[in-house]
Amino acid sequence: MKMDGQENEQEHRDEEKIHDVVPVSGMYQNWFLDYASYVILERAVPAVEDGFKPVQRRIMHAMKEMDDGRFNKVANIIGQTMQYHPHGDASIGDAMVNMGQKDLLIDTQGNWGDVRTGDGAAAPRYIEARLSKFALDVLFNPQTTNWQLSYDGRKKEPVTLPVKFPLLLAQGVEGIAVGLSTKILPHNFIELLQASIDLLKGKKVQLLPDFPTGGTADFSDYNEGLRGGRIRVRARIEELDKKTLVIKDIPFGTTTTSLIDSILKANDKGKIKIKKVIDNTAKDVEILVYLAPNQSPNVTIDALYAFSDCEMSIAPNACVIIADKPHFLSVNEILRICNEQTVDLLNRELQIKQAELMEKLLFSSLEKIFIENRIYRDIEEAETFEAVIQIIDKGLGPFKPQLYREITRDDILRLTEIRIKRISKYDSYKADELMRKLQEELKETEHHLANLVDYAISYYKELIKKYGKGRERKTEIRSFETIQAAVVAANNQKLYINREDGFIGYGLKKDEFVCDCSDIDDIIVFRKDGRCLVTRIQEKVFVGKDIIHAAVFKKGDERMVYNMAYLDAGSGRSMVKRFQVLAVTRDREYDLTKGAKGSKVLHFSANPNGEAEIVTIYLTSGSKAKNKVFDYDFAELEIKGRNAAGNILTRYPVRKIQLKREGVSTLGGLDIYYDESIGRLNTEERGKKLGTFQNDDRIITIYKNGEYELTTYELTNRYEPDKIMLIEKFDPERVISAIYYDGGTKSFFVKRFNIETSTIGKAFNFISEAKGSYLALVSTDKQPQVELQIEKSGSKEVETTMYDMDMLIDVKGWRAIGNKLSPHKVKKIRLLASKVADDVEMKNAASKASEEELDEEDQLNLF
Question: How far apart are CA 561 and CA 667, in angstroms?
């Protein structure tokens, strides 16, 4: 029987084991979910309450425990943090260096590396750190902190720190978890606090990132930091001279080393042409880029943005932990949550302070009653301690209604602990004074509680005042133009052609040379059979026999016009047409004739500015035409699309067509506009119209430093809007009137002059070169007027006077010093509207007046 019982028991255990078996697939599922949850919550994604990942929070807590105002070795801090963080010292050290480089929460000492150059920090045993005053002010308060046990149960650590500041947005964060990632970009310290104030006032806010590396950024598609948004960040590149560029800021996410490597890589691929790159970065970023001979600085700057890391695209993705779950929020929503938390923490701190003040007032009152009413004497005859308690309680009885709460045994015990020395030296006046101060402080605290929003606003303003100095915005907010890579790519290849066999490419070096080009260019080819196609340049590619023209194709080029005469094999007539090729499908053939088999091109020309030549047509000797030789002017033809059949040239057979005279452009001038938001020229009517340009027309730019420069109207030109005082179409007959301040004599001078130089792309200084000199005013009006506010010596009254500048001085050379503007102290200078407009402007104004298109200012100028 015993054996049977043992067998039954063993069978029962085997059945239990069978029920406990978990399939391997189930294990993987549970393990993966546990691991994913751990990585998301405990490693990669920050909590919205304080903006910290767990390792960062534990570092801050460990540093607070060690804080004595002095620096500690980072190795020591890492060891202290390991009591809370169940990972290796390397991860703690890396996280601490990352926080220290942000220069907000940690004061650093030693070599902590450089985010600009990518240099790493020294070993933890060599560098030191301590909490910054800002961190001590906004991060810690044991009374408002929620605590939990550390991983081994030996210590307590904060669940989250009670941060009274949008720290998550100030520092930014980046992390990759299982199945998701987060990338919150850093924002400006002062702007965050000001936005918090505006939010509390009920205003709308717009938060834009600010990067520690500076540079310029286009936030047009930022989308409040949500998934799908994008930011374009650029290095700040300036033209040192015509042969040298200087990079002064780098894009966020790059280093000077990686940036230089990308430039050299682009040069090796032939995208740009430079001689060398030198890194002079020290306190400030300075990378010198020396250009190859005959390279345009403006085009090279665009090429650096197009082909190197001088321009980067950043995709924000704001993901945070809320209630142990990841949430994707906008930065405005994160700021709102941080704001609500700050107000709540301030409220709790005020309530705690209120309770503490009320307790201090209560005990001060009890102490005053106990001593002044000599209750302490009544306890002398008490035989037991309980009797002492009862006597004191009875003595306090008449005064209890005046107190805000009931008196407890602990309150009475505190009274029994008062020493005789304190009783003997008790000063009623000082006690009343102390109670009065406590009451005032309590009243102030209660006022803050009643006006919590105002108190929070004052708190934020105090943070700006205390810690805002030196934390101004570093990244300039700009709108970027889209750079066409094909336009700015350096000509690193040569195009060759074999017309008879129908091959083109940069590998046919024994054949006919066509032009320099880039390896990313498209090539347009026209053949004698009246067909054209566009193809990507290659080493060697077949495009069809009997090539009559091949060139680099520029998509959307409305200035390029093709003139063609062809024989229509279907009707036997010779046709002429003028057309443009604006957009095509690559490697698709287009028939430019009527499509009849046997049609062929008799004459063809490509005209980059819409020129229309005159040709001589020779008919066959057997034709019945009276005039067998006659001229034809392509200017008579209207420019149409490539599919147009064209006009009839002649019904008779043509023997040959010969060029008689080169033509001039029939397109007229090109309307050029200046977009001051990006400092670029365009033909899309964006910004201020500079005028209609053609041939050798120029643009004049006058800068605030007192220099002028003549440039072409190439759309690749770059201008610095912040440095420009005037930009317009150059008229050599137009007089420039200027008022400038001479730093040497500390006086204002006026001068009028014509531009006498003709050098393109060189700046000429026309004011004093003394230190502190600057251009105060400039105008190209015919009769500019200025209003001066002057202060005569010995008088504090300010007089206002108006002058015609053409009456103050005659037109002289651009090198002339000019005349002193006034013998008195000039307080203010203002340019007034001209009395008489230019003749051209008057005609334009008169024509527009009939259409009721004049604004008020134009109407005033007209009359």
Answer: 9
Helices (H) and strands (E) in the chain, counts: 21, 48
The CATH fold of domain 670-832: Neuraminidase (2.120.10)
Contact 780, 735 (CB under 8 A): yes
Identify the DSSP state of 830.
Answer: E
Amino acid, res. 388:
V
Which region among 332-341, 465-474, 485-494 has the lowest average model confidence (pLDDT)? 485-494
- The CA distance from 407 to 397, in Å, is 9
- On the 0-12 / 13-18 / 19+ scale of CB atoms within 10 A, 767 is buried
Is there a shared CATH topology between the 45-162 domain and the 670-832 domain? no
Q: State the architecture of 45-162 in CATH terms.
A: Alpha-Beta Complex (3.90)
- What DSSP string runs through 510-548? TSEEEEEE-TT-EEEEEETTSEEEEEE--SSEE--SSEE
Q: Where are the domains of the chain?
A: 1-35, 45-162, 233-312, 347-451, 670-832
Is the pLDDT at 26 greater than 90? The verdict is no
758-790 residue pLDDT tens: 888 889 999 999 999 999 999 999 888 888 888
Q: What confidence tier does 25 reach under pLDDT thresholds 50, 70, 90? A: low
Q: Of residues 28, 35, 126, 618, which has the active-site annotation?
A: 126
Q: Distance (Å, rounded) from C-alpha 235 to C-alpha 249? A: 5
Measure the CA–CA gap between 782 and 787, rounded to whole angstroms: 17
Cα 411 versus chain centre, distance = 61
Sheet strand arrangement including 707-711: 724-729, 699-703, 707-711, 763-765
Q: For 233-312, give the CATH class.
A: alpha beta
The one-letter amino acid at 197: I
Instruction: Evaluate if pTM is beyond 0.90.
Output: no
**Contact at 8 Å (CB) between 189 and 75?**
no
- Count how many residues are written for the chain: 863
Question: 19: burial class by Cβ within 10 Å (0-12, 13-18, 19+)?
Answer: exposed
pLDDT in tens, 433-474: 888 898 899 999 999 999 999 999 999 999 999 999 999 999
| Burial class of residue 335, CB neighbours in 10 A (0-12, 13-18, 19+) | buried
Secondary structure, 3-state, 116-167: CCCECCCCCCCCEEEECHHHHHHCCCHHHCEEEECCCCCCEEEEECCCCCCH
- Report yes or no: 607 and 561 within 8 Å, Cβ to Cβ: yes
- Please answer whether residues 402 and 422 qualify as being in contact, where contact means their C-beta atoms are separated by less than 8 angstroms: no
Query: What CA–CA distance (Å, rounded) separates 722 from 676?
Result: 9
* DSSP per residue, 416-463: HT--HHHHHT--HHHHHHHHHHHHHHHHHHHHHHHTHHHHHHHHHHHH
Strand runs labelled E in 473-626 = 476-477, 493-498, 503-505, 512-517, 522-527, 531-536, 541-542, 547-553, 561-567, 574-580, 590-591, 600-607, 611-619
Is 506 a known active-site residue?
Answer: no
Sorted by sequence, the CB contacts under 8 Å of residue 252 that are 6+ apart come out as 185, 209, 211, 212, 213, 215, 217, 233, 312, 314, 475
**The pLDDT of residue 383:** 78
